[in-house]
Amino acid sequence: MIYVFDTSSFQQLFHCYHADRFPSLWRKFDELVERRAITSVENVMREISNRDKKHGELEWAQKHPDLFPRATADESQFFHQIYQIPQFRHVVPADIRDIDTPADPYLIARAKTIEGMIITQERQRGNRVGIPSICRHFGVNCGTLDDLMDAEGWSF
Fold it and tell me: How far apart are CA 94 and CA 115, in angstroms?
């Protein structure tokens, strides 16, 4: 399985699971990174760059630039499928090259095209349109850090 990380999950990982207190978790996470089972998108790197920098997220991300690639042609084409659904149009930028747009549609497109699982801390809340509801509509696997740990059989 390839896991497509949202900013919220990187934030949770770095803010709540400090490497000095959870070394075995970080060893397992680093193994996933080495196996190329972790990826994200360019816009997540931008979001990390704009956030609080005291927890080491940015420094770590800058050491792993290959985890944050630009959208591929297939991913860009999938944006149009998202846009065809009226209630999802607000998450797709008018210009897909606009790097200031939220990462959500890029994450969904990446996960769909590589048949990966989005890892986000977002939860479905009522009729709110977000990553989980769009993933459900398009049959994209979506879960949290806890779901990743369950899928990988991790216990601590």
Answer: 25
User: Of 115, 22, 100, 34, whose CA–CA distance to 67 is shortest?
Assistant: 34
∠ CA(128), CA(5), CA(44), 5° rounding? 85
By CB neighbour count within 10 A (0-12 exposed, 13-18 middle, 19+ buried), where does 110 fall?
Answer: buried
d(CA 153, CA 130): 27
Find, among 46, 25, 151, 27, the residue nearest to 106 by Cα.
46
Concatenating the DSSP letter of every residue in 5-25 gives: E-HHHHHHHHHHS-TTT-HHH
Could you read off the pLDDT of 46-83 as tens digits, one per residue? 999 998 778 899 999 999 999 999 999 999 899 888 88
Contacts of 66 (CB under 8 A, 6+ apart): none
Span 3-152: which CATH code? 3.40.50.1010
The vertex-101 CA angle with 81 and 40, nearest 5°, equals 75
Per-residue pLDDT, averaged over 121-150, amounts to 89
Give the pLDDT confidence score for residue 89 in this predicted structure.
74
Query: Amino acid identity, residue 88?
Result: F
